[in-house]
Description:
By secondary structure, the protein is mainly alpha-helical. The chain has helices at 2-38, 41-60, 65-71, 78-111, 126-133, 135-141, 146-152, 157-178, 185-202, 217-251, 254-292, 297-330, 338-345, 352-355, 357-363, 367-403, 409-418, 424-427, 432-448. Helix 1 (2-38) runs parallel beside helix 8, helix 11 packs antiparallel against helix 12 (297-330) and helix 12 packs parallel to helix 19. The mean pLDDT is 79.
Amino acid sequence: xxxxxxxxxxxxxxxxxxxxxxxxxxxxxxxxxxxxxxxxxxxxxxxxxxxxxxxxxxxxxxxxxxxxxxxxxxxxxxxxxxxxxxxxxxxxxxxxxxxxxxxxxxxxxxxxxxxxxxxxxxxxxxxxxxxxxxxxxxxxxxxxxxxxxxxxxxxxxxxxxxxxxxxxxxxxxxxxxxxxxxxxxxxxxxxxxxxxxxxxxxxxxxxxxxxxxxxxxxxxxxxxxxxxxxxxxxxxxxxxxxxxxxxxxxxxxxxxxxxxxxxxxxxxxxxxxxxxxxxxxxxxxxxxxxxxxxxxxxxxxxxxxxxxxxxxxxxxxxxxxxxxxxxxxxxxxxxxxxxxxxxxxxxxxxxxxxxxxxxxxxxxxxxxxxxxxxxxxxxxxxxxxxxxxxxxxxxxxxxxxxxxxxxxxxxxxxxxxxxxxxxxxxxxxxxxxxxxxxxxxxxxxxxxxxx
Length: 451
């Protein structure tokens, strides 16, 4: 009965996460298409760097509260949840203060001419935008941890509804205001409004008992013990996911970084949906399987991989051959250079399945292996990206970013083998689908006569 219940919850959650994420991406794409016509590319370059800073501070202070609540046997104990919520609030305030200090540091550095001329870092509006956006961390700190409990139970309908409603509210107001006020502050306003709406909705009585600000020392020790490797993994995760823009922000103008951000947004859409499924469905499911029937985790994991690899390999091949056409169709001439970047960055979708190993290892309570795997990839990024850019310019940098995850495959396979859950044949079973989809995409472009 437990297995039937789990399968039903997984099926329902997968459908909701997929539908919710697709809706979210459609909203983002629609607003993106409108805003790129109302605002200049420079503004998107500045906001891309602000997002990098905020994500960096957030991930540098991550102690794995969501992963802890999902994986721990105490994950539904109200005393434990009160402690987790209290830690989350304190963390949100600290993020806010650190971001304020960073914005002051940027302002002083600009005034003293310490930053590269014409780079995004030297843009005069950057420190002020960062300072205002930092308040979203305080709002996020007050989000109810009942959202994590619902993830634990694979009851994600309400979670996704809240995320979509908060996102839609911010985007609608952003577009309406931008019609009359075409400044970067419109993008900032959307972020603040979305954060306020999500925080308020997360405390609705239907989601569960409201948390109180209480810190239990034993629960705090449990959170810190599990979260220490999550903390390291989050730091590495930030450096990995945002390191490209940290470097490119110093090498490119705001306009060119804005163009790159469009390509990255398009190519990252597939990665984001799989990341969402991994965090909201696959990780809770594998955690429950390991708690109830640990010997079945290998077979369940590879059944998931088969489906994920089929979708991602096909999507990667198709987008790698048609990306320029898609950009030319959706955006105006100012963003055409995003086309070749989109095609190259789409290759990174191939590696999504390999990265799912982290969720499997985490479900077994092994957060250390995940941190080690990420350390390898971050090392490759920070050594290889400057070299690629130095010798081959922007083209070399974009190609390197697209192929970066290859560096982690040997480490991933080793960690899976050490855990006794590796099936090497099934790791690469769907790889031919990339080439099939790539040639089909090329044929479609040629047949229709798109240029």
